Amino acid sequence: MFLRQREPLSFDRSVPGKRGMDLPKLDVPTAKDTRPAHLKRSGFDALPELSEVEVIRHFTRLSKWNYGVDDGIYPLGSCTMKHNPRLNEKVAGMPGFTDSHPMAPDALVQGNLEMLFTLQEWLKEITGLPGVTLQPSAGAAGELTGVMLIRAYHVSRGAKRRVILIPDSGHGTNPATAAMAGYEVVELPSLPDGTISFDDVTDPVNGKVRKGLKTLVKELGTEIAGAMITNPNTVGVFEYRFKEISDLLHSVDALVYMDGANMNALVGVARPGDFGVDVMHLNLHKTMSTPHGGGGPGAGPVCCVEKLRPFLPVPVVLRDTVKVGEGEVPKHSYRLDWNQPQSIGKVHTFYGNFGILVRALTYCLSHGSDGLKEATLRAIVNANYIRARLKGAYALHIDSPSLHEVVFSDTLQAKHDVHTLDIAKRLIDHGYHPPTIYFPLIVPGALMIEPTESEGKDELDAFCDTMLAIAKEVEENPEALHQAPTLAPLRRMDETTAARKPVLRWTKA
Amino acid sequence: MFLRQREPLSFDRSVPGKRGMDLPKLDVPTAKDTRPAHLKRSGFDALPELSEVEVIRHFTRLSKWNYGVDDGIYPLGSCTMKHNPRLNEKVAGMPGFTDSHPMAPDALVQGNLEMLFTLQEWLKEITGLPGVTLQPSAGAAGELTGVMLIRAYHVSRGAKRRVILIPDSGHGTNPATAAMAGYEVVELPSLPDGTISFDDVTDPVNGKVRKGLKTLVKELGTEIAGAMITNPNTVGVFEYRFKEISDLLHSVDALVYMDGANMNALVGVARPGDFGVDVMHLNLHKTMSTPHGGGGPGAGPVCCVEKLRPFLPVPVVLRDTVKVGEGEVPKHSYRLDWNQPQSIGKVHTFYGNFGILVRALTYCLSHGSDGLKEATLRAIVNANYIRARLKGAYALHIDSPSLHEVVFSDTLQAKHDVHTLDIAKRLIDHGYHPPTIYFPLIVPGALMIEPTESEGKDELDAFCDTMLAIAKEVEENPEALHQAPTLAPLRRMDETTAARKPVLRWTKA
Amino acid sequence: MRYLPSSPAEDRALLDTIGVPRAEDLLSGIPEALRLNRNLDLPTQGSEQEVAWQMMDLANKNTRFCAQFLGAGAYDHFVPSAIDAMISRQEWFTAYTPYQPEISQGTLQHIFEYQTLICDLTGLEVTNASLYDGGTACVEAALMAVRVAKKRNTVLVSRGLHPLYREVLKTNFAPHDGLNLVEVGLKDGVTDLADLQAKLNGDVAAVMVGYPNFLGAVEDLTALAGPIHAAGALLVSVTQEAFAFGWFEAPGKAGADMACGEAMSLGNKPNFGGPFLGFLAVKDAHKREIPGRVVGQTKDLDGRTGYVLTLTAREQHIRRDKATSNICSNQGLVALRANIFMQLAGPEGLKGLAEQNAAKAQYLRQRLLELPDMQPVDDQPFFNEFVLRYTGDYAALQEACLKESLLPGLDLGRFYPEYQGCILWCATELHTRQMIESLVEILARVPATV
Amino acid sequence: MRYLPSSPAEDRALLDTIGVPRAEDLLSGIPEALRLNRNLDLPTQGSEQEVAWQMMDLANKNTRFCAQFLGAGAYDHFVPSAIDAMISRQEWFTAYTPYQPEISQGTLQHIFEYQTLICDLTGLEVTNASLYDGGTACVEAALMAVRVAKKRNTVLVSRGLHPLYREVLKTNFAPHDGLNLVEVGLKDGVTDLADLQAKLNGDVAAVMVGYPNFLGAVEDLTALAGPIHAAGALLVSVTQEAFAFGWFEAPGKAGADMACGEAMSLGNKPNFGGPFLGFLAVKDAHKREIPGRVVGQTKDLDGRTGYVLTLTAREQHIRRDKATSNICSNQGLVALRANIFMQLAGPEGLKGLAEQNAAKAQYLRQRLLELPDMQPVDDQPFFNEFVLRYTGDYAALQEACLKESLLPGLDLGRFYPEYQGCILWCATELHTRQMIESLVEILARVPATV
Ligand SMILES: Cc1ncc(COP(=O)(O)O)c(C=O)c1O
Ligand SMILES: Cc1ncc(COP(=O)(O)O)c(C=O)c1O
Predict the structure, then answer these.
(1) Best of B173, B190, B237, B404 to mutate for ligand 2, by most ligand atoms within 8 A of CB?
(2) Mutating which of A15, A69, A91 best tests the C interface, going by the most C Cβ atoms within 10 A?
(3) What strands lie across the sheet with D154-158, from one edge to the other?
(4) pTM for the complete prediction?
(5) Per residue in B121-174, pLDDT tens?
(6) Is 0.85 exceeded by the ipTM?
């Protein structure tokens, strides 16, 4: 039960002689020991000795200090914490999938290959882009793959080019990715609503002039390999001049990468391939409901235009149509093609996070074209409902129309010396997971709220009522909020010491 | 998370139009409606309209108000709340078992029949009794089956007889069962340690003389159909004169039924068939670790001596040995035999709680003969450890040696007007499920503690420390305990009103 | 042994505290002569891998089918994945009976919701936390009817009741010399009104009829209720296929005084017959005679709503030999499955599923009747099961079906001599048109009567 | 749609509060011209039953085996049922990255324990919350080595490294014109010391070797460490079969400066190659250069011990283009599986499993060598994989095995021309003697070379 609070590290529970696993009787001669003496395993310092029941209790009790999607709204902006259907888990656990070996001959894994091919077809139609790879393990891996495609494209036409443009409202993975792909990052200034500024902007604080898109394209021209643009952007606003942006970049043959983390606002409503995107990634662990698992695994498939297809990672999944008799439905067979001379190579050891891809296809089939669009619209309605109920109590900072998420600022509360962090921690006392905070960086004290389509009116109201109650508390008793959380198992943590004197593993006392 | 406390009834959450289940497209013509008008389903008053995510959250949140075996020690005496291995759940969920139809021809369910046969063999050896039926769904159903076997035996020899003897320390199901089997219950007085009194005893309070076993057997003689004896008894003490008791009863051809709820103290150590038991039940949901499921399902197989076998319920599982060539291992085939002329008939629609029986066999195979005995000894050690640590702080009431459970009385605390109920409720505040209380009835303010073999020293110590702390609190601040629990989601419930003005279902406001 | 938290040092410490050298010394309470002085003659312990494989071998020895056209009290329906996901939370499946309400509100509120829904399905006012299965539910219903009716000792049972339910009733009535169980015959596949009227008299406490009955036909409860109530007896409706509650009127609204039966269809697989879910719903006036556990709503000291086990004065642990039943453990977790299933389905889902079952069964019947050797036996309104006379050889038919891994309907002659050569067919939402077509195709190829 | 909590009335209320008539009106931010003015050309929604069957059909199109003698980076081991039972608790599998420590202590403490155990296995001091897989872990290790080594731009990679890991390395080094990836050849199945020495120079930041390598042979890290350290380079040990940590000395104790690779063997099935579990463990001195999330122990305001994400100054969301890596989401849940697996196994379990793997592989090799057309290629110490030369026709051998639903070892020629006609065999605790015997039996019957 949740009343007994402390759960020690299992290492402190270990007792010599206990065991949680029994081995099968060995039915062959014991191993001859051919190891050189210095390569024999000497022993372990931490592995605990516990019985099965103790291990199960440990992880059961620990789980109770977490908050999950089934506990209620999980409004982390940009993370799309939607319902994780159990059907997807059940399907991904089918032995036909889990027991299949990645090195098995194609003929023996036709089901897997058909699964991959079918998912690719769905993603093509959803994004409007004809090329797909499912290998990247997460969004960042997708970004890296995408930028490497851009690089391969330019190399194939003579020079890799030098620069990638990234708006200051972009996610940290964007610049980090560009760097890993050997590019120099030039920052694009964005307007208050996170959209890209075409014109130069003068920093109100230090008066410095920051070059806008037009100037940068004029000055850098063919030095620009491409731009990484998040759309809808991290403020939840659609980059409404996207077509102009891509046209401008294309004019110098620079390519447009779209960070698709926010695709949950577009599926069935608008297709990146239709508004000028050359290459993008999807976070299936966001848009397609695959569970986040406390940090992963995810899946970050990359979709691209025709001219980038030749560079996609190997192997690619191909479908051959088997000859069939008159009027019969055509039969198909599938194979992995490793022979793609222009390919950038492999970006994952095998074929990506296959089990996650299975869940994503299951999600797609469950929703269908109609359900996907309905989900998108509902996600947008939910975000705008929260926006409507909370504006006034919290500063909206911008009034461009919100799509699937809404970003507030703590400026109204800051007057009482209460800040975003305090608000977030108080939400925990009320039994809610806090929204994403202090991101995007361009919004002062950002509170980024993404309810997703999975919330009903009652849950949205309960959350909004709580947010309003907190706003009221800020007026009446601001000091109290600095103490939050007070009802959680722990109070605020000393993160400074954690970083200054890092303790990163248990060691025998 | 556990901080948001209230979870309303789903009926109060229902919203017209929501749905948590989609139906497959109908691929045949819609049904012709041949129902007489007055037999058409008119509608539903309570069935809620909710989406899948809302239903899942409802049952996830509700689950958090429960205490389970994986939360810690679950010391309910007589309930044997031991570790529920996940392997057993996985095996019981194998489609080969779950999809099999009870009306399918024997040839198509050979795996099921072999499973049932094998489990019977295990139970025979464990109890030392040659006859087994797996049909009874729980202990009480086993008791009823057993007493009906006794009845059938006597009927076959002329008369059903009139009386069943049951000690006052017996579980309520014993007398209730005897009555359901058409018998009159005559109560056997028991000594303070719950063992049966051979001699008459005079009630210290009202001076009434209660007839002991010897007198009753002398007076009732062949009116006695049998006796139902729990061994070890409900005080956790072995009926050390069991052989004499059964000899005495057998002398008038009365049969001995053993309530096997406490078999966890005997498996591998002593066999009822060896000390005079004619028929008994086992609670597989206790002794064999099948989960209690919040009240069931369980399984209460009945084992009996040879002379009762002809009366066992139909069908019985038979094994035929298929002819095989020289030196080959003999092959077997299994069948259900419905043709047992003396059988009492069916006691379950089909073959009992099959899925539970699968778990029980899995438990047996995992433990093996050695593991079963080790578990028994450990269960006894654990109970005696608690006894050793708590005696003194709590009144032991008797000093006969305890086996798998120990029963304390609240007499020491009663001096401070603190009673068993108060102690139980305070345990909840400390995060423990309370022991069984006020049972057996012969122990004043009984606290019946059964730790089972699943607890390690650290958990036993944590529990004992808490019990001692409570004993201390009783000394220092007795009033406080009347308020317990104070940390649970609810305080004490008004059970009187609940029974006086029963509200047994939700109705539209 | 992986399940036992044993370690030499700790075990020693335990024994030292107790004050005995060896664990065996704690067996002193068991007379030497009564102990087992050898090891059990059974295999020794197995690793998880070995045991998992051993049990998997057994499971694989059962024949798998791509479609089962067999119902007869165990129905194959789709089970939403949310159900297993929920009940496998240890807070649900490992908990004991909720004796301590403050630490068991999850189970208690679930049971209260479950009770509400069983009452909704049956159109009655009070039910309990579950009974073992359909057969034993009939026993509890019959015995309760006798208690309620006072001084009436006969229970009439329609021959349309599931034959195995009737077997279980027989077994449990046998010990009661004072009670009689009398069968009422069938006419055109439903209870014979004439025979019923002939057998109704002042000693009849209750009449039990299938709704729908074992042959799939719906009994006209309203028509039956007239004479039964006139005779001062109770009408007990017995339902073995809970999906029928989405198709036929609630028994309580159609004239039944009690409704009992089997609700395994709500979220369970056939499971070789168990664990299943027995239910019994009654009128408010009779609530204190109902067997088994009942949960009620109440308030805590601070006036907060909560739930407790109530009306315990009826139960064995209080009333002992005067209890309304001996039942203690019930089918709690199966009731939870049913509760989750019903909440997922909702009114639309339950009606929609019922419509699909009716549609599939009607289509199956129509297609089968196109075969030369299949003939109708009656045309009572039915739900998802029906009887056809087969002029061919059942054994041959069965063999042909098994070859294509289809499980055919039940050979009715096994339970009803008068229906020798008839087959009880069943179709549910799980039967695609294609499965039905391939069944018909296979049957068309079965060699004519031998 | 069952997943969407929509109802006409409530949806209306939401829109009214927002102040728009239709949901579509909220798309105003998206220019008309950029919208999709048609429905997606995809199938419409499916019920759970239909989708479950559709996906089941796909799963069933894969060939099932009773034994796989194929490893090569994806190992078939027994997975205790407790693992799926635990990770399927929604508190574990649905949670996000633990950004808010007060409401995520479960995940944070698990990661801290996982980090401790990876350090224990590898004999190193610092690791992270996981990386994608073996191949990408190699990339992160190589790039980190370059950062650590400063001004050294070459990474030497043994040809014994998993060929697909080397492919992933190539892909990721390509963009860095300044960095070189140079291969070191093999001799007798292990890294060629002479070739290594020849290629070691002042520009070499690190040398990566398999431990054991792709051919199953163990590299003598201690012997290699000498010249490598002398040249001022770092020795990176790459392990693709984590069970080997129970057999061979911890790389950190044998001379490696970094250990990375694939830990899928700890509680996962082959899963067609993912999700797997990349790991990277380093020395304390290098901790601020490690990529990915790291959890540290600290105290709350009341001095209670707790856990937080730390050293975030290395990460992309703070450092942006100066970050140690771009990784954000990792393989958290797979790390949880590994953590549970390791805690169940404990030191005895891990060593015992390793001993059984070694025993099975040795037995398999011995039995195979009794066949006329199987010959040894070297006799390096190995763990659960080894190479044999096969003079017969691999295609024929494969076909024979598949007929008996056995999956044979890998045709090594596919990745190593110099090992044309050789097969990489693997055996684990899952391979019973009987499976091995039937494999040998089948191979004995394969028609001799065509
Ligand atoms: C806008 C944006 N881009 C990229 C990422 C990185 O995706 P992943 O965590 O799957 O690598 C995220 C996820 O946090 C994101 O929100
Ligand atoms: C001693 C004793 N007898 C009988 C029973 C009844 O068993 P069941 O609940 O399985 O019907 C119990 C269970 O509580 C018991 O403890």
Answers:
(1) B173
(2) A15
(3) D126-127, D278-282, D258-262, D234-239, D204-210, D154-158, D180-184
(4) 0.97
(5) 999 999 999 999 999 999 999 999 999 999 999 999 999 999 999 999 999 999
(6) yes
